[in-house]
Amino acid sequence: MADKESRMPRRRGAATETPAARTVRQRRSSGAARQPPPEPGALFADLGGILAESKPPEALKRGLLAVERSFRPRSAWVVVHDVAFDRLTVAAARGRADARVQATAPGEGPVGAAFSSGKPVVEGTLVAVPMIAFGRTVGVLVLLGGSFGGEDGPSPEEFARLEAVANACGAASELARTRNDAERRARELEAAAERLREGDRTRDALLAHLSHELRTPLTTVKGYLSMALKGRLGEMTERQINALAVCDRNTDRLLRLINDLLLTARLQAGKMTLDPRPLGLKSVLAEAVEYLRSDAEAARTTIELEVQQGEVFVRGNRDRLIEAVMHLLERGLRGKREGHPVQVRVAPRGRVAAVDITLGGVRVAAEELPRLFEAFRPDGGSPNLGLSIARQVVELHGGHIEAEQTDAGLVFHVALPLFAGAVTTPAERHEPRQGEILIVEDDDDCRNGLIEWLEAEDYRVRAYDNGREALERIQEVPPALVLLDLRIPGVDGAALVKTVREGSRGQHTPIFVISGAIDAGAGSDQAWGERVDGVFEKPINFPYLLERVREFVLPAPGESVG
Known about the structure:
This protein is an alpha/beta fold. The protein has 3 domains: 2-180, 2-Layer Sandwich (Beta-Lactamase); 238-424, Histidine kinase-like ATPase, C-terminal domain (Heat Shock Protein 90, 2-Layer Sandwich); 430-552, Rossmann fold. It has helices at 2-6, 19-30, 40-52, 56-71, 109-117, 156-229, 238-268, 281-291, 293-298, 318-330, 385-396, 420-424, 444-456, 467-476, 493-502, 520-528, 542-552; strands at 10-12, 75-82, 87-94, 121-123, 126-133, 136-144, 277-280, 303-307, 313-316, 342-349, 352-360, 400-405, 409-417, 437-440, 461-464, 481-485, 511-515, 534-537. The strands form 4 sheets. It has a 6-stranded mixed β-sheet. Strands 8-10-11-13-12 form a 5-stranded mixed β-sheet, covered by helices on one side. Helix 6 (156-229) crosses helix 13, helix 8 (281-291) packs across helix 10 (318-330) and helix 14 (467-476) packs parallel to helix 15. Mean pLDDT is 80; it is low at 1-7, 13-34, 421-428 and 518-530.
């Protein structure tokens, strides 16, 4: 009984009765203007229509229309609570305005009383029904006049229908508000995500630009140092040769430092991609060993490579794997290591290619082993940037790497998935042929260094500083091989490769990309399909470049390009 009484509407102004209220009461008592209650199906349809609206104004209008059909009020309003200003304001209306249904504060007048109490309020011919949604009052449904079955206003059944309509309006309003908030936040998140993507694009462009600009001059320096050390630039004293050897080693160190910083940035951003191809792991290890031969001599030690069962094939990115192996080997070349050789063994083991690198005499404390591959140490310990890169590169290839301290020294165990297809399918062989090598490079020093290096090996060379003239020459007289920089004026590298491969002349010409962009080895082939034959990253490893050139082109002693 107490619960029923708590749900009864509050009646304001019962002590006095206005003439209009007396007239309405008399009409009700005589049964005039009464409307039969709507069928339950019609009410459910009205409630469903209100809740189905996605826009609050339309939902509230549907609510007033339902009230109009059921109770024929002279006027009706939906008043909502403005949380920001703590005011009750009219959001939808049918009929004339009324002073009692203007902007007001919660608790003021019959509308504010209904909102604050959460119970219907009747004042004369005005009926205010709170709109309750999800456990809280969000507004008030207000009727002025109407056809009701009760003596002094709506009957309990009519109040129930009014409450159903009011709560449906409140729920629709809150749902729409929630949807709007969610959509707004989604737009804000998308805008924030786009700003992050734009930041990523800017960073990638900056990294590529820095990589190219830093590596291109290093290619020139490295090339001339290499020629000088081979005696191609004239006789030198032993003191001069030693000085140039120091410069050559430190040029390599500078290059590796640049590579490490740029690769770390891309790995941490998840931007490092691979263009995996079948390759021999023995040749990868041999090239890494050759790269570090001068470093080993400076450390007064040797790097010994042992392959137990011929070539071992994996699928991966050659340049990235070489860098990873070099980082592991360098750990054993710090300081003077006389009497402590670095040993590298590779062999198939089950379904993986197992590489064991033993750094003779290197000792690492047991508590340091778990943190050996951390790039930066928050505790102030020595950073291991190179080892961190090696681990991430190996993991990108589907492998794993572990470190173990043994009596002989520190051992790195590297495992990479075997590529069985490459074992049974021999690598494609190219018969070298006579012809010129076409160089397309816009940096004068780098271009001239490549010309001098190749001409010193008795190759015929023709060079251009832009893509347009180079493309015309290729279409006129296809060369034996093309060395192409990616960033060239006129026709860019991608467009040149596409035109040559789809043209009628030169479509089978071997094309090697030479680039200082950090992602040249990873992205160029992927972007152009299988359209280039290889990538040389700057600074170029000239012995390796010469080895690949010999696969395609025969020297022409005594000949020159006019």
